[in-house]
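Notes from hallway chat w/ T.B., transcribed later so I don't forget. T.B. wanted the structure written out for a chain they're using in a teaching module, and asked if we could keep both sequence and structure tokens in one place. Agreed to drop them here.
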Amino acid sequence: MRGSDLRESALEKARKGRYSARALEGIPEPLRRLYFSAADGGPEDCYEINAAVKALVEFDCINLVNPATYGPGEHDVIFCQNVLIYFREAVQEEIAYRLARRLNPGGLLFFGPGEMAGVKLPGTQTVVIEGSLAHLRVE
């Protein structure tokens, strides 16, 4: 799995995998016990994701406007939520097209609510999954 952001500071925070008790409220207790433990040297209500889970994720610094930074491979799912709102419409569509082309056949591309609504991306069809709109790569 890969996670990405434009800011190295955000990536460093993600690599640490530390979360407040409040951030974990929606996770059922059995899963919390399985995947999290009290963080060493942190506040009393700070938890850290287990090393085995951390090892499954790689983090990349990506600039969505510069496709050369996108990194290797194609993906089964891409979440690009609440990011495109910061770009002009023409740039939004170009980024969305590039991301859709990075999906494996059958892969899903999710945007934030209202982002890219009504836009048809070549090679995809729009699907609704649990109330969220996604683009399914069909070719």
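Follow-up for T.B.: The helical segments are 8-16, 29-35, 51-54, 89-101. Might be a good example for the class.
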